[in-house]
Amino acid sequence: MTDLVIRALDTSDADLFDTLTDPLGARAGHRLTTHRPDWKRVALRDGRVVARGAWWGGPDDTEPVNLNWFDVAEGEEEAGAALLRSAPWQVELELNLPPAWRDAPALRAAAETRFTAAGKAGYDLLVERFLYRWTPEHGLPERPGRLVFRAEPDDAVFFDALRRIHSVTLDAHALKAIEEGGLDRAAQEELDFFHWCPSPREWWQVAHTPQGDPVGIHIPAHNPSGPCIGFIGVLPDQRGHGYAYDLLAECTHFLVEQGAEFVAAATDQGNFPMAANFAKAGFPVVKERLNFHPVR
């Protein structure tokens, strides 16, 4: 086997990235994503692309937030691993796959090639997630009308709520943050993400019962690809009443009232209660995402 050449791209040769086949439909999935040419890297053998990666970040970020496009040709797992190891950024890897990909042999084989390459490069699987995309033909979810929603300008209120919510969380990223730095770190990471989003801070809302008792928070947001459910969280002492659905319905209505023509969302596959709420609210699963993080 001939030697491998790994190189970054720029505006003059960015089209080289597109010469590798796309069995998992990454191009269609990233139709709203802007990737910088200089954050794209390829591995070539005999001048042919056998692995590629596109790192991604917001328009003002100086370094990538994650790697969200990673492809490896069949039998080139070592090349894919070398591409990841040689990159100047060791950030989380997101692999977006078609729904029920395990049931289609060709899709499963392509996915497992990428998993193997990631593993060889020192990435471990953190969590599998469902990705949702609501559009108007699914109908707006009914507002139960049980809660009162209002904006809250004080970040400390959200920080406290996030600490309480994450004390009993099922979210894998929050659990990782708690393991590494406690509840304060988990809450701060959420706040940092909400502030990073280009949507207005004034959109963040706290939910109360009609009697004034706090129930939870919801964060309608825009990420660089469009409108999304930023966060839904019910306080521990208010669980058991189905309030997460109320928060999700309100968040969806809010974004549509701001002009959203679609609403993206995601939840961990192991978070069965939240997945059920998304189904009830008319959010179809459009992709499955596997998140890997570098550990070696």
TrEMBL record:
SUPFAM superfamilies linked to this entry: Acyl-CoA N-acyltransferases (Nat) (SSF55729)
Record-linked CDD domains: NAT_SF
Gene3D superfamilies per the UniProt record, alphabetical: 3.40.630.30
Keyword set includes Phosphoprotein: no
Keywords: Transferase
Organism expressing this protein natively: Streptomyces violarus
Location of the N-acetyltransferase domain: 163-296
Keyword Transferase included in the entry's annotation: yes
GO molecular function term, any single one: acyltransferase activity, transferring groups other than amino-acyl groups
Superkingdom of the source species: Bacteria
Name the record gives this protein: GNAT superfamily N-acetyltransferase
